Amino acid sequence: MNTIKVVGIDLAKNVSQICVWMAEGSVAFNRKISRQKFLDAVRAFPPTTLIA
Length: 52
Fold this sequence. Notes:
The chain is α+β, with helices and mostly antiparallel strands. The chain is built from one helix and four strands. The chain has one domain (4-51). A four-stranded mixed beta sheet has the order 3-2-1-4. A hairpin with a 4-residue loop joins strand 1 (4-10) and strand 2 (15-22). The N and C termini lie far apart (22 Å).
């Protein structure tokens, strides 16, 4: 079962980095996201996701 376990966020002024780990320990994605799209990206994760 591929479920998101942890979302790591590195905040910056204009571009933030988001890294997503799956429950089995693999990295699902690691990408830069603009400030304008940041809240939409965070809201897309399931409510049980740990954001650190």
